[in-house]
Amino acid sequence: MGPDCGTGIISNVPLAFTNVVRSGNIGLVGASGTGIQEVTSMIERLGGGVTHAIGTGGRDLSDSVGAITMEDAIAGLAHHDPTEVIGIISKPPAKEVRDDVVSLLHSIDKPVVAIFLGEKPDHHEDSVYLAHTLEETAKIAMDLADNKPVKDNYYSKKPLADADPKLEGKHIIGLYSGGTLAYEAGMLVSEALNLGGIISEDGYVLKAKGNEVLDLGDDIYTQGRPHPMIDPRIRIEKISEYANDPKTGVILLDDVLGYGTDDTMAESLADAVNNVSRKHPRIKFVATVVGTRDDPQDYDAARKTLQDAGIIILDSNAQAVRYALNLIGKDLNEPDKKVVNYTGGTREVPTPSESVLDLLYTKPRVVNVGLSEFLDPVIKFGGTGVQFDWKPVAGGNPKLIKIIKKVKALQNRDQENAKIVDAYKKAVPFLVDVVPAGTVISELKGHTLLHAGPPIEYNEMTEPMQGGCIGAILFEGWADNEDDARQMLESGDVKFLCNHDVNAVGPMGGITSAHMAVLVIKNALKGNDAYCTMNEGIGKVLRFGAYSEEVITRLKWMANVLAPTLSAALKKLDGGLNVNVMMAKAITMGDEFHQRNIAATLVFLKEVAPLIVSLNISEKDKQDVIQFLADTDQFFLSIMMATGKSMVDAARTYKHGTVVTTMTRNGKDFSIRISGLGDQWFTAPVNTPQGLFFTGFSQKDANPDIGDSAIAETVGFGGMAMIAAPGVTRFVDAGGFKDAQKISNEMAKITLDRNPNFTIPTWDYQGTAIGIDIVKVVETGITPIINTGIASKVAGVGQVGAGTVHAPLACFEKALIAYANNMGLLEDDDATLLEKELVKE
Amino acid sequence: MFMSLNRNQTNGEKSNMLPLHLFNKDHGIINTMFQHSFNIDFPDLLFHVGNESDSLSCTGITLEDDVVDELLKYIDVNDPVSFIKGKLYIYTKKEIRTIDLAPLKTVDLRIPQIKLDLDFLKKIIEKFSIIDFQNDWGLSDEYSPNKVIEMLNESRDPEQIMKTLKFLYGRGRGLTPSGDDIIVGFVSILSAFGFKQLTLWKEQVGIILESRATTDVSESYIQAVLENYTSKKMVQFLKVIRDKDEEQLASSILDIQNFGHTSGTDTLLGMYAAFILLKSKSIH
């Protein structure tokens, strides 16, 4: 396959954008992807088969290339005995190239059907049969394959439909995802309406007298967004746009099925048509479905879905265009074609190379570069292959590539980064106390609340965070009911600060108030402290936005009983509890410290239970505290979060380099900080986690990504250490063990080092991957993966599932630009211009 | 160079009748599939692909058992087949499967010519006593084997022959109806011994075949006999009696009987009737 032609079938193994077609005695060579798809699918539906369909690339028949691949392919198929009929699909090549190809076709001893789309042949030449449409190509190929005589005419004599007197507009609009289908539609409409032929301008293949046919897969529409065969949005927009034009009479559509294309395109198109049809009932929609019954999508179901939306479905694109023309009172003219003698020259058919014959006589052995999904059908259909993960550096953005080169050339950066990573590795975190937040965070004065993520106003918060605010007000007694609490918040009576700005972190909403208990972690490396509220367990909890009496009562118990008990217990130890030791044990027991903390929680309980028992407090309190810790699998999460915060804050005292020192999210934005730029936030809209949902919930219930818990991934845990926790990979819908290994190996590509304190048995005792480097992230396009609980987007419902979410790339790109600018590597306006480009994307 | 099937295809046999009916670029389709064999319907031949454990049919080939089993996993009824340059290309749903006929050993399945020896003929007839026709044949109790033998023996003119054939042709159940098997056995023996009314019999069989009232498979076997070709087991039996190999006589009869559910017994009945006829003509 060459460029601009992502379709190929080799020995019935589908390659890239391809339909599932049975084997047969027809072989195709095509310079167009959807041209091959339309013809192979029709042959399959007509009962025939195609063993090889060789995509040559759209540029192969240009003057400069001279059809090298097409001629190789023709010679190969001529020597492939089971191929008895050869089909050629191309837009019209330059005359010399065409003559050359045609002379080769006349030199082989197999019958040929050829379509040079755009030409209107009036005869056949000996054994080379010339078709006008893709449908005619398929039908001639079928007759040749069955040893039947080729007919003079393959088109119905009568129009396919009567003119529709109710049509208000008379213009035909084609909104195509397939380039060759658009080209064919443009050609037929132009011929019927005498519009002067097709064009190639700004995605239009026809734009004349109000009739417009668009190839929405043209580069102009696919820069920075997926192809319309994968992503229906551009077509939905255009359907709406053209439907609003009163002169539009008929809109033509294609739904291309097969590997590589969207599984629910028919539903998306049907929804779009249903929406506009309510407003514009007189516009007719006519479409064709390109595909077979063995495609991954259901061909019959796709047709039905479109038909149910009132779309008229025809068996081929050519018929759909003709039907559209008939509706506006026009028709195609397809004269009979007779066979005439070929008068041009012939030549010796080149002997195909051993490799070409090997390709045609064996199943392909594929090196799949890029999208790994394309390798699956290769294996499924009997081919073999290996995956080579590759992406263009920095997404191919030349400006970012230039910046990366300049940043990489900085002489001190490696040493600077090493110091940050060293600070992570040498962190010595101890759990020393549990205290009311207000006693250690001096900023918690008056009506002040802390929240997760970068700065955010109350009215921008998602419901779980807002609910947490209400709960905190009720807990603090600033109001005694929900309405008053909401009033306080809406009137701006509450001041908000980021946890991260006051040495703290908080899970999910992260709402922290002065009298809530926080764990205190002291990092002996720099002597700094970090704080995090304690885990409340599961069910209705403040961190997910619940604020019922049960929630407030529990928070009070945690502040009044749990915290003092743990505080007293910890004080029995000289210097507190060594967190590294507990984590080193727990990571070998299957924890990754974000979604799974059960081992660490038990190790913690093992340490504190004897201390609690020895305290001079009531037996009931001892029993309650130990029971709570035993019941709360994720209790250690908060210990880890405060630990992570203490690690990054110690490292952040050194303000150089390109290492990520914070990742956090507030439900609206994902933000990062990097070592060289201190407290500056680099922000992009958060993604919504994908994963598994508890019974009764689905993706539509999911709140966007939220919480300071991404501190886990910042210091190498959670998604970064997925391999440590095979038990979690299923729970977060990240596949099996091998997938977990793949994820962690990928994460190791964007980090600078391993942390020897936390070796992972299932990773050959390699340490956790630490020190996310923004340069590596932007260069590879690999963004950190976060393991996360999924909050309901409705306050108070709580956790509805668990999954993973990727940090948005834009944060890292923005940080890199800012860093380069700060280091004086950019021209005056570069930073501003680049920032604007990123925002536009 | 070829992959898939030929990787495994090492041994097998082919009938020497094939070149008479299978031509380059012939198109066929998979017509019928069985547990260990299948048929391909070509314009001029119902081509049988069997495994080594079965008898080579004059209309086909045999391949190693596991090769046939592997093929059967891929193919389906109505799959197209092309015969190109000595290879069968089966266009299955998933991929092309190829059978190369060139390496297969050609087996002569023409019916051997045998000179009549009355004494040995009597021995043959005696040996047929090991077959319990009444219980093992395929036609129901409604009919009697002896009655059928009588009918065959007493059919002398075209009218009588046609009447007998009309009774037998297509009668019974299965892929090769019992009546057809009887005809095949009967005509095979008459052919081997050059029975003087053979041409008359063959003409009448040819006429009745035109009515297309039996199965494709059965028709192809009858047609082959008319062209003087038969199965490998039948040829082996005929060679035994040609060589007057008395020791092998019983086993070669039983070999035939083992074919199919009742087909072998039915064929033997036709053969037996022919031997009786030959004996009576010879004596007279």
Question: What's a quick, concise take on this entry?
Answer:
The complex is a heterodimer of chains A (841) and B (284). Chain A has 841 residues and is an alpha/beta fold.
Secondary-structure topology with pairs:
The complex is a heterodimer of chains A (841) and B (284).
Chain A: E1 7-10, E2 13-16, E3 26-30, H1 33-45, E4 50-55, H2 68-78, E5 85-90, H3 95-107, E6 112-116, E7 123-125, E8 128-131, H4 134-145, E9 171-176, H5 179-193, E10 204-208, E11 211-215, H6 219-222, H7 233-243, E12 248-256, H8 265-279, E13 284-290, H9 299-308, E14 312-314, H10 317-327, E15 338-340, H11 354-361, E16 365-369, H12 375-380, E17 384-388, H13 398-408, H14 413-425, E18 429-436, H15 437-440, E19 448-451, H16 463-476, H17 482-490, E20 495-498, E21 504-505, E22 517-523, E23 528-533, H18 549-571, E24 577-578, H19 579-587, H20 598-613, H21 619-631, H22 635-651, E25 660-666, E26 669-674, E27 682-685, E28 690-693, E29 706-707, H23 711-714, H24 726-731, H25 737-747, E30 751-760, E31 766-772, H26 774-780, E32 785-791, E33 799-806, H27 809-822, H28 830-840
Parallel strand pairs in A: 3-4, 3-5, 5-6, 6-8, 7-15, 9-11, 9-12, 12-13, 13-14, 16-17, 19-20, 21-23
Antiparallel strand pairs in A: 1-2, 10-11, 18-22, 18-24, 22-23, 25-26, 25-29, 26-27, 28-33, 30-31, 32-33
Helix pairs in contact in A: 1-4, 5-10, 7-8, 8-9, 13-27, 14-22, 16-17, 16-18, 18-21, 19-20, 20-21, 26-27, 27-28
Chain B: H1 4-8, E1 12-15, H2 18-21, E2 26-33, E3 38-42, E4 45-51, E5 60-63, H3 65-74, E6 80-84, E7 87-91, E8 96-100, E9 105-107, H4 118-127, H5 133-136, H6 145-154, H7 158-168, H8 178-192, H9 198-209, H10 216-226, H11 232-242, H12 246-257, H13 263-283
Parallel strand pairs in B: 1-9, 4-5
Antiparallel strand pairs in B: 1-5, 2-3, 2-6, 3-4, 6-7, 7-8
Helix pairs in contact in B: 4-13, 6-13, 7-9, 8-9, 8-10, 8-13, 9-10, 11-12, 12-13
